[in-house]
Amino acid sequence: MEESFANARLAYANMMAGEADLKAQIEDMKGHEEEIEVENAALKAKVEDFQATKTWMLLEGARLLAKNIHKGPEMTAAVAVVNNAMSAVGVNSGLNGYLHALKKKTSYAEVSMLNRNAVEELNAAIACFDSLIFPVVKDLPKLVNELLSKNKDALSFVSGESSKE
After folding, report:
1. Which residues contact 154 (CB under 8 A, 6 or more apart)?
2. Whether the predicted model's global pTM rises above the 0.70 cut
């Protein structure tokens, strides 16, 4: 019987030690749970910001980006060069028709408005237009991991239009 009491006491002592270990593990788990909740809240905020950024870029950002490209100095300068070159080609065509109509009464070399390089200048202007680089587009990859507020501030808007619309 003594032996059975000794075994019971030993089992009880082991059980109490196990209970203490379990209480320590529970406390550790509570601390870990709090860390996970903080991390979860941070991740939720990040996901919400990414969703807001995506929504803004699709609804407003794309329109404003296109407007920046359309009204930017790079585009307006390139379009002006192409327009001027097209005008010169048109003038040449008109003058050639006029000279033909006069049946060579006026020498081709005597026509002051004639630009013999008009077609080459137009081709060069078109090539320049095709190779345009827009800074507003070139800078977009830098904004990939930024917050929405940083994306809005980083884009330069034309005509004083604010990104806070």
Report:
1. 139, 142, 143, 146
2. no
